């Protein structure tokens, strides 16, 4: 493997990492990681490539990004299979993740003809006041194992049409998908006589990530990983509220998908389910029945809905969390054990009986464990939502319009994603994606998140023969 910087460089000094299939823990491949020396060379080539890329008009950059989307679309099933093989999510989710990158490319194409600042009215005669947006330069992108394609796509497609070069460090456990995606992108760039280093890759561990974080040549750094490591976008405690007037036909499938999808390893996975005391027992019973019908199996089987955890370490973390929940007064009403089969399979788990402020409830657990909590009043449960340090995604289930708008208002959810009658997971690309508090640090994908990848200049042009000063100041 090599850091794609024009023609591939060879990594010869970095350590070799073996990647494993989470479904059976069999080795897939050995990938040589980049050394810090390799990293230095890659950064230099990426910075040089930026000089070429920034000179290309934005609509032309958009056309090249469109071609990248088409190239990904042509290989979507193969890439989806690779995501499933290396990460462990079911095949349909692997394909869906690549499709998300394709969709962001389509979005970015249109955006390439729209980015820019307004012409503002000047208070001085014969003057024009404009906003000029320029690329920041080199965007570092560090992504996590759970979405090894989509998160890079959110960042790179928009960053590219803004005129930036990108340097990607994926998770060491998903190096194959990082290499495959980068090869596809590099071919499109080079077919357009653009250096492949515009989208460079360094496979590596914490040493490379630390180097990126400390490197002043990184004009912008996007990090997705644990709050413990990054304090930014991460493994979150997510929230969901179900009031007594909720439509349970929406609640059960929504909670099931949000808590069990991707084996509980999404950043928007539901961790806490708050149920009004009047419907608590009914919902728990129906949810347990729904859990029992989840088809667990091989990620590549089209009938499978629930696959393995990503690593053996994740299985240990799951067991530790279940034990802590029991010690703190919780009852496991469904699941809680490792499944006896090859691979990193655990039972999707429901825990009841814990207080809202139990330490385990406030602890990040990247596993399919749903803590079901009972509440009485709207005011208290809104406060419980906001008492944790994380704040990415939340959802409420109710038919009360007043409650909906209180939930969306200043005293409602303090999360970056605030939903009503839909799951916490499954965000569309057109909206800005990101959280608040320890899961804050910016937005990605849609809306006006493109502004993060650019620097803004306020420009005043005097096209008259006079020199009036602002605020009517006389200096003569």
TrEMBL record:
Q: Where does the record say this protein resides?
A: Cytoplasm, Cytosol; Mitochondrion; Nucleus
Is Oxidoreductase a UniProt keyword of this protein?
yes
InterPro entries reported in the protein's UniProt record: Ald_DH/histidinol_DH, Ald_DH_C, Ald_DH_N, Aldehyde_DH_dom, ALDH7A1-like
Principal location class = cytoplasm
Which CDD domains does the UniProt record give? ALDH_F7_AASADH
Q: What is its EC number?
A: 1.2.1.3, 1.2.1.31, 1.2.1.8
**The protein's annotated pathway:** Amine and polyamine biosynthesis; betaine biosynthesis via choline pathway; betaine from betaine aldehyde: step 1/1
Please give the SUPFAM superfamilies that the UniProt record associates with this protein: ALDH-like
Q: Where is the Aldehyde dehydrogenase domain?
A: 13-456
Keyword Cytoplasm (UniProt): yes
Report which reactions are catalysed by this protein.
Answer: hexanal + NAD(+) + H2O = hexanoate + NADH + 2 H(+); (S)-2-amino-6-oxohexanoate + NAD(+) + H2O = L-2-aminoadipate + NADH + 2 H(+); octanal + NAD(+) + H2O = octanoate + NADH + 2 H(+); an aldehyde + NAD(+) + H2O = a carboxylate + NADH + 2 H(+)
Mind telling me which Pfam families this protein's record contains? Aldedh (PF00171)
Name the domain of life this protein comes from. Eukaryota
Q: Which UniProt keywords apply?
A: Acetylation, Cytoplasm, Mitochondrion, NAD, Nucleus, Oxidoreductase, Transit peptide
Provide the Gene Ontology terms for cellular component: cytosol; mitochondrion; nucleus
**Quaternary structure note:** Homotetramer.
Q: What does this protein do?
A: Multifunctional enzyme mediating important protective effects. Metabolizes betaine aldehyde to betaine, an important cellular osmolyte and methyl donor. Protects cells from oxidative stress by metabolizing a number of lipid peroxidation-derived aldehydes. Involved in lysine catabolism.
UniProt lists the family membership as follows: Belongs to the aldehyde dehydrogenase family.
Which PANTHER family did the record assign? Answer: ALPHA-AMINOADIPIC SEMIALDEHYDE DEHYDROGENASE
User: Know the name of this protein?
Assistant: Alpha-aminoadipic semialdehyde dehydrogenase
Q: Which organism is it from?
A: Athene cunicularia (Burrowing owl)
